[in-house]
Specification:
The protein is of the alpha+beta class. The chain has a domain of 77 residues. Helix 1 crosses helix 2.
């Protein structure tokens, strides 16, 4: 249960940082077996966080760079880059993003304290 709460808090933190940095979730659909999310402005958020030069910002940059790496890059209607994510939760409680198990990413984020 504690692990699930920690993952939820990381997710909420990342969502907050994305929104603060100007990223916009273009779509959020909930199909029967998972969720599709498109994010526009990820590079803007990363740039703002990198300029902050704080420990929390550095942790967020690390996490967002890893998440960016599993995204499917495309182009939004306004010409900015867009990253698409398919998020599925497995029967055992694992989280897959675009078919990639993100447990190592979460473990890396948790290890940086």
């Amino acid at each position: 249960m504690e692990k699930m709460m920690r993952r939820m808090m990381i997710g909420l933190t990342v969502a907050g940082l994305l929104m603060a940095g100007g990223a916009v979730a273009q779509t959020a659909k909930t199909p029967t077996s998972g969720t599709n999310i498109s994010v526009v402005g990820l590079e803007d958020s990363l740039s703002k966080l990198q300029a902050m030069k704080t420990r929390n910002a550095a942790q967020a940059v690390l996490f967002l760079q890893l998440i960016k790496g599993v995204g499917k890059k495309g182009t939004a209607a306004d010409g900015r880059s867009q990253y698409d994510y398919r998020i599925d939760v497995t029967d055992s409680g694992g989280v897959l993003v675009n078919g990639i198990d993100i447990a190592p990413i979460l473990n890396a984020a948790n290890a940086v304290k």
